[in-house]
Amino acid sequence: MNRRYRKTIIAGNWKMNKTASETRAFADEFKALLPKSKWCDIVVCVPSADISAAVRAFKDSRVAVGAQNVYFEKSGAYTGEVSADMLADLGVKYVIVGHSERRALFGETDSIVNKKVHAVLNADLNPIICVGESLEQREMGVTMELIALQLKSALSGVSAEQVRRCVIAYEPIWAIGTGKNATGEQAAEVCTFIRATIRSLYGARIARSVTVQYGGSMKGENAAELLSHEDIDGGLIGGASLKADTLMAIIHAANQN
Ligand code: PEP
After folding, report:
1. Fewer CB near the terminus (10 Å): N or C of the chain?
2. Quick check: CB of 66 below 6 Å from ligand 1?
3. Does residue 176 line the site of ligand 1, with CB under 6 A?
4. Are 5 and 230 in contact (CB under 8 A)?
């Protein structure tokens, strides 16, 4: 990480876990553990049904609430969908876009990801844009081409001013929920490549201001090493974000760098 030029952001992704009451209980426990000094920005991305409870529960803290999905249209006949304006009005600050589970299970294509990124930015929210390769793609040696394609597609039409509000999460699919994290070197190689791609699109000054996270089985035990790399500015954390103490262990690890 490089705190001089960009934010360090530790973000939890609860996926489809926790009820509203469990959200309140988590917030109480987590807030009691929060350090006085601000080592990093903290975001908890909760299920849509828990957003109101989470915003209320974290109101008096420095924990920002994020959503895990959004629809790109502003309003209309889209049964079951939620717009970026609706999320903003509830008090959401970040929205995960293009998570590999949404790409694999819900047909989210690069073009849909791009539309969602624009919808999030137009609502003055910050997208957390996920990119990452499968094990098969890594073994075929096409990781960098794939990451460049996903990233350039996601950022198509995004202005230099807007890209400063984007967070990019490198999440190798083979490391998500598997307990098998990428090594610091593997993660750093791709995160550095992501920054170089942003540099080629927007120039060096903008590229150094964008937060690039790593996600994939990050936990208290491996976070300090992963975050010690210059281009890894935080984490997007699934499993370990479900318990207050395991998420806090990662925040403490962020302070060791
Ligand atoms: C995720 O799904 O964004 C993730 C990184 O999950 P986990 O930390 O459980 O691998």
Report:
1. C
2. no
3. yes
4. no
Residue (of 115, 129, 191) closest to 157 by Cα position: 115
- The whole-number pLDDT of residue 38 equals 80
Distance 133 CA to ligand 1 centre (A): 14
| Alpha carbon distance 116, 153 (integer Å) | 12
pTM flag (> 0.85): yes
User: Does 29 have pLDDT greater than 90?
Assistant: yes
Q: pLDDT band for position 257 (50/70/90)?
A: confident
For residue 120, give the amino acid letter. V
H/E element, 105: helix 100-105
Q: How far is the CA of 75 from the centre of ligand 1 (A)?
A: 30
Beta strands in the chain (DSSP E): 9-13, 41-46, 63-67, 94-97, 126-131, 167-170, 211-215, 234-237
Q: Please name the residues in contact with 203: beta carbons below 8 A apart, sequence gap of 6 or more.
A: 160
Arithmetic mean of pLDDT, 194-201: 98
* Span 229-236, average pLDDT: 97
Any idea which residues carry the catalytic annotation? 99, 171
CA-wise closest residue to 154 among 141, 167, 143: 167
